[in-house]
Amino acid sequence: MDDQTFILFGASGDLAKRKVLPALYNLHRDGKMPRRFTVIGASRRPYSREAFQGLVMDALHQYSRHPVDSDETTAEFLDRFHYVPFDAGNADDYTALKGYLEDLEARAHLPQNRLFYLAMAPDFFGTIAVQLQASGLTSGTGWKRLVIEKPFGHDYRSAAELNRQVSAAFDEREVFRIDHYLGKEMVQNIEIIRFANSIFEPLWNNRFISNVQITSSEVVGVEDRAAYYEKAGALRDMVQNHMMQMLMLIAMEPPSRLNTEAIRDEKVKVLRSLRRYDEAKIAQNVVRGQYLSGRVGGQEVVGYLNEPGVAPTSTTETFVAAKLYVDNFRWAGVPFYIRTGKRMKEKMTKIVVQFESIPDKLFFNKDSSLAPNLLTIHVNPVQGMELSINVEQEESGRVEPSEIDFTRESRNSPEAYERLIEDAMTDDPTFFTRWDEVSLAWKWVDPISEAFQQHQPLYPYIAGSTGPAAADELIRADGFRWWNG
Fold first, then answer.
1. Which CATH number is 4-149 given?
2. Superfamily covering domain 182-415+429-476
3. Which InterPro entries did the record assign (predicted)?
């Protein structure tokens, strides 16, 4: 890994403290950081270097996967941290940052390899990219990379404008758009499950698969994110990025080779094949909901309209379920069902591949009802997969489903941000989103978002449930059911 400087914008913010700083520390403890590196924190707070290092230490104690000891490794890590007060809208602050950075690189004998990480409000993404170039921060003698958090725009038009600004300062190959779901272990393992096992790939088509279900449910509500969530809703917050990424990995064709651009090319083909819906089709194939008060984890919780910062007349959706079709040769006619929501019954992200059923009449003499074979990929909080097959029970003689279980509880393995930050530092963009992925996803989502603002029904659901009844009816109309639990 090249020696480099990690410039963290928004260094005093919640994302930096919860995810980025602990990820850097855990990478350091695991020996996965460069031999020589330094971190410059930049935010509006007027911290001294020592005060910022104290903030870093507090964040590690709260959120680090590894225990934080007062040992030589931790002391060495903290000594890499520096701080510059910074206002993204002030051109003079970029000049000051450039002078500080160049002096630090010279004193530490570091090459001018610079990774800029934007862990701050998306309103500043375009401004920072433009000012980085205007100030000369991107014109060093080494490489430059830009890591951008989601959301990348709030619709296609805003995303295209942001991309124009970013592209003026960075080549596409230098831009790393983070979707933290792509850093999850089992999401990264989807291509291994598919392409490294001959029992699956020959069956991975419309002749043997009846439907695919992708679920990402949360037990938490909007919490302190009402200002963002009121603008985004579940559609923009989850469907346009996380759900689409899992869909692409499940539905993509085998890449010509296992390299970054070949994999991304196949993912993009899925989005190009995704069936677009007009307003009438949106009403038939998309369900949106909003949670009411209820009980989650044994505790009473308020409904969305009573959350702090939420307008009492808000029609923002906290739940989305949809039926999608990938109109290509492999998947013609196979429905892909997605659903995501807040204040659901359980925290769960999983993908269920349901195979075509065997005719029951083969077992008409047995007191049996054949269940479909299921491949379940558990992403979070359980990791691994299950394969459900029908077997005859020894005592009863009944044919019933039995699971071959390859799941495990999340262990002390690298977290998503650790994997993705390491990839960015080593220049591997495989599990980051390319601009054509982002743009095609927005083009699919935008008509649905517009329909939501018109006359699309908003179905209530009780907090602690599995969502509105309309979502069950959506899948039941095709003769299927959601595989819960």
1. 3.40.50.720
2. Dihydrodipicolinate Reductase; domain 2 (3.30.360.10)
3. G6P_DH, G6P_DH_AS, G6P_DH_C, G6P_DH_NAD-bd, NAD(P)-bd_dom_sf
Q: Which two tokens stand for residue 38?
A: 């330094």
The Cα–Cα gap between 3 and 113 comes to: 7
Give me the helix-helix angle, 49-63 and 21-29, nearest 10°. 80
- How does the average pLDDT of the chain come out, rounded? 92
DSSP state of 150: S
Question: What is the three-class DSSP state of 477?
Answer: coil
48 is annotated as contributing to ligand binding = no
Is 378 a known active-site residue? no
Cis peptide before 457 (omega within 30 of 0): no
- Please indicate if the annotation marks 15 as binding a ligand: yes
- Listed residue (244, 247, 325, 317) closest to 287, CA to CA: 317
Q: Is 184 annotated as a binding residue?
A: yes
DSSP H helices, 352-468, are: 416-425, 435-452
- Among residues 28, 61, 66, 242, the one annotated as catalytic is 242
The helix or strand, by DSSP H or E, that contains position 339, with its residue range, turns out to be: strand 335-341
Domain residue ranges of the chain, discontinuous segments joined by +: 4-149, 182-415+429-476
**Residue 329 and residue 279 in contact, taking contact as beta carbons nearer than 8 Å:** no
DSSP 361-424: GGGTTSS--PPPPEEEEEEESEEEEEEEEEEE-TTT--EEEEEEE--EE--SPPPHHHHHHHHH
Residue 411 is predicted with a pLDDT of 64
Q: What does pTM read for this prediction?
A: 0.92
* List of residues 6+ apart from 461 with CB closer than 8 A: 289, 290, 291, 292, 319, 341, 467, 468, 469
DSSP state of 231: H
Digit-coded pLDDT (tens) for 124-167 = 999 999 999 999 999 989 999 999 998 899 999 999 999 999 99
296-305 pLDDT tens trace: 988 999 999 9
Could you tell me which residues are beta bridge partners of residue 348?
217
Residue 361, marked binder: no
> At 136, phi and psi to the nearest 5?
90, 5
Asked whether the predicted pLDDT for residue 363 surpasses 70, the reply is no
The amino acid occupying position 74 is T
Tell whether residue 324 is among the known ligand binding residues.
no
Determine whether the annotation assigns residue 121 to a binding site: no
In terms of DSSP H, where are the helices of 14-122? 14-15, 21-29, 49-63, 72-79, 91-107
Mean pLDDT throughout 405-432? 86
Counting Cα atoms < 13 Å in the Cβ hemisphere of 275 gives 19
Per-residue tokens: 281: 């089709």
- Whether 342 has a binding-site annotation, put simply, is yes
| Residue 398 binned pLDDT confidence (cut-offs 50, 70, 90) | confident
Instruction: Quote the CA–CA distance of 392 and 420 in Å, as a whole number.
Output: 45
